[in-house]
């Protein structure tokens, strides 16, 4: 060590210290007179050691050395006349490596600074050891959590999950803890996207079930499904509040929750126009939230999950529009707008279904459910067409077919969303 920064008060204990440092072979690169300039001076000059020469150090001095220890650790010596034991304890706690009371002497400068350096290096080694231990502990916890995710989503044993993690870490040149943390974050992001996407679907399902109840379609028990859907919405809000960052997504989530309050009130009052308005507002807010969550993630698997989840919503939206059209004469304004909505939804649904069938992100279960969804979709579209062709008095059977078909599609695409959410491509990125 050759360079020293001196911080001294107006009444120093060692007035000849600058000359003594030079005589001992040290270069005094800067001197500061106030303790609040200490950290700034150390950052600027990067000395090999700091010497504080102060008659009686105040709390401000110890605050300065404590901040120095946190931000720019450096060997620190303090010369003082304060023999109070409390001050000595404060000095050690604040990062002073050598605290010299009434003992300054030119001949002792080099060994004192060497002592400060040795204690400084030991403190750094201890800190690194503690940080390394903490890192290993956190990584071990992450590995256990990641194993749990793989065991649950891939039906693996504990040993198989560990081997999968180890193999993936080696092939991707990552530590197991690093990969495990990625899996945990991917699983949480996928779950959040899926749950936020379910809110879109539920907005349209609730409006559909309200229409079924109003039309007296009892085959699917709309009252029971309404109650279950309300509980579903509120369960998703509870999970999203737990999983999502309040500073990042709190405003979007709270806006959707407020919108849900309006829709819930409209459902309780049985006001069809208000239900439709509330459902559209909830759909818009949930779409915004889901899009933000997808954009924050990385890789195409989240996009695929969002797309598959959106198919749930489109199946319910198509059924809602078909029911609206079935309850009105074909020449009415409501029927005309509902028919236009059906056409738009059909185009969007079928384009997405074609895409999902074409991508390599697939398993036998995904392939089977996509095939079943294609058949159920064609059956529901056919029921909607038949419903529009029949006189209003003869549409009840086709309304029941619409209701059943939309619930079948909901089940299939909800299951598909879970397949995508739990896929290895999703978890491993």
The total number of structural domains is 2
Report the end-to-end length measured between terminal Cα atoms. 49 Å
Pick out the low-confidence regions. Answer: none
Largest pleated sheet:
5 strands, parallel
The average pLDDT is: 91
Query: How do the strands line up in the largest sheet?
Result: 2-1-3-4-5
The 3D shape can be described as elongated
Alpha-beta content class:
alpha/beta
Structure, explained:
- By secondary structure, the chain is an alpha/beta fold.
- It folds into two domains: 3-125, 3-Layer(aba) Sandwich (Rossmann fold), CATH 3.40.50; 176-428.
- It has 15 helices and five strands.
- It has a five-stranded parallel beta sheet, sandwiched between helices.
- Helix 5 packs across helix 6 (158-171) and helix 11 (300-326) packs antiparallel against helix 14 (396-421).
- The two termini are 49 Å apart.
List the helices and strands and how they pair.
Layout: E1 3-8, H1 17-23, E2 27-32, H2 38-45, E3 49-53, H3 59-71, E4 76-80, H4 85-93, E5 98-101, H5 109-154, H6 158-171, H7 176-215, H8 222-243, H9 246-269, H10 272-296, H11 300-326, H12 333-358, H13 364-389, H14 396-421, H15 424-428
Parallel strand pairs: 1-2, 1-3, 3-4, 4-5
Helix pairs in contact: 5-6, 5-7, 6-7, 7-8, 7-10, 7-11, 7-14, 8-9, 9-10, 11-12, 11-13, 11-14, 12-13, 13-14
Question: What labels would you give this structure?
Answer:
alpha/beta; 15 helices; Rossmann fold; five-stranded parallel β-sheet; 429 residues
How would you sum up this structure in a few lines?
The protein has about 425 residues and is α/β, with parallel strands linked by helices. It has 15 helices and 5 strands. Helix 7 (about 175-215) packs antiparallel against helix 14 and helix 9 (about 245-270) packs antiparallel against helix 10.
């Amino acid at each position: 060590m050759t360079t020293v920064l001196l911080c001294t008060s107006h009444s120093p204990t060692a007035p000849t210290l600058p000359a003594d440092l030079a005589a001992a072979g040290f270069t005094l690169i800067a001197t500061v007179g106030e303790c609040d300039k200490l950290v700034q001076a150390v950052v600027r000059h990067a000395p090999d050691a700091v010497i504080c020469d102060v008659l009686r150090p105040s709390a401000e001095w110890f605050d300065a050395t404590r901040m120095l220890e946190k931000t720019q650790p450096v060997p620190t010596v303090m010369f003082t006349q304060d023999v109070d034991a409390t001050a000595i304890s404060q000095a050690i706690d604040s990062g002073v490596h050598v605290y010299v009371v009434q003992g300054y002497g030119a001949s002792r400068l080099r060994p004192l600074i060497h002592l400060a350096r040795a204690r400084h290096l030991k403190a750094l080694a201890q800190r690194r050891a503690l940080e390394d231990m903490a890192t290993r502990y956190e990584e071990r916890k992450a590995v256990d959590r990641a194993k749990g995710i793989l065991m649950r989503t891939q039906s693996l044993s504990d040993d198989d999950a560990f081997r999968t993690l180890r193999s993936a870490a080696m092939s991707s040149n990552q530590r197991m803890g690093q990969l495990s943390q990625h899996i945990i974050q991917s699983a949480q992001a996928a779950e959040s996207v899926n749950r936020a996407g379910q809110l879109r679907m539920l907005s349209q399902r609730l409006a559909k079930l309200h229409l079924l109840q109003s039309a007296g379609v009892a085959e699917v028990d709309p009252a029971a499904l309404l109650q279950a859907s309300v509980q579903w919405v509120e369960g998703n809000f509870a999970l999203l509040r737990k999983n999502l960052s309040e500073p990042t997504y709190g405003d979007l989530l709270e806006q959707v929750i407020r919108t849900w309050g309006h829709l819930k009130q409209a459902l309780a009052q049985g006001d069809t126009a208000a239900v439709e308005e509330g459902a559209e507002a909830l759909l818009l807010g949930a779409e915004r939230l889901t899009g933000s969550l997808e954009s924050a993630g990385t890789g195409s698997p989240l996009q695929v999950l969002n797309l598959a989840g959106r198919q749930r919503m489109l199946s319910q939206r198509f059924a809602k529009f078909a029911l609206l059209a079935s309850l009105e004469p074909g020449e009415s304004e409501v029927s005309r707008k509902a028919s236009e909505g059906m056409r738009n939804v059909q185009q969007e649904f079928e384009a997405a279904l074609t895409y999902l069938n074409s991508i390599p992100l697939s398993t036998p279960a995904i392939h089977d459910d996509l095939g079943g969804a294609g058949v159920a979709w064609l059956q529901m579209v056919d029921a909607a067409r038949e419903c529009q062709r029949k006189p209003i008095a003869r549409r009840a059977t086709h309304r029941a077919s619409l209701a059943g078909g939309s619930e079948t599609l909901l089940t299939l695409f909800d299951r598909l969303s879970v397949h995508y959410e739990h896929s290895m491509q999703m978890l491993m990125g």
